[in-house]
Structure formats: C-alpha cells, structure tokens
Design goal:
mainly alpha; two-stranded antiparallel ribbon; 56% helix; 90 residues
Length: 90
C-alpha cells in the first residue's frame, strides 16, 4: 500500500478515489493466511519466506516480482485518468 500511496499524483486524488485505486483487483495477490501474515508488507524482493514453510523458491520470487511490476504500471494509469477527470471537471 505504501508504494501505491507514494505514486505520483496519488496524494492529489480525493480520498474516495484513493480507496478505489487501492482496492483495484490488480493490487491483490491471494496468499494463504499464514503466508500472508508472514509476508506482511514486505515486497517479494525482501521477503525470505515463511518460517515454517521455508524460503520462497527463486522461480516463484521472480514471477511475483514480475507481477508486482505489472501491477505497479497498471495502477499508474487509473491514477492519471482520475487526475485528468478532476482537472477536466474543474
């Protein structure tokens, strides 16, 4: 979430629009409860893995890093579009 809230223009959106961007499907990856609790807010490049289940396999880490990059780019567009809409309606 921090990475998204730090994106250019995010802070200029009204709260309602910020929440919509944060709740976009592309921003979520399903993980099991224990894994999600272990990962917390760490990104895939810094999270070593779950203490009980072991390290994240490198192939999985690379795939998840790619998904993060795709999601990051996908979230930039709606932020920009929402800002343009606000400007056009001003």
């Amino acid at each position: 979430m921090k990475e998204i809230t730090d994106m250019e223009g995010f802070d200029l959106l009204p709260r309602e629009q910020q929440i919509k961007v944060l709740n976009m499907d592309v921003n979520f990856v399903g993980l099991g409860k224990p894994t999600n609790a272990s990962k917390n807010a760490k990104d895939w490049s810094t999270w070593p893995g779950h203490p009980k289940y072991g390290k994240v396999p490198e192939i999985i880490r690379l795939e998840m890093l790619e998904r993060e990059a795709v999601a990051r780019e996908a979230l930039k567009k709606p932020i920009k579009e929402r800002l343009q809409s606000i400007e056009n309606n001003s």
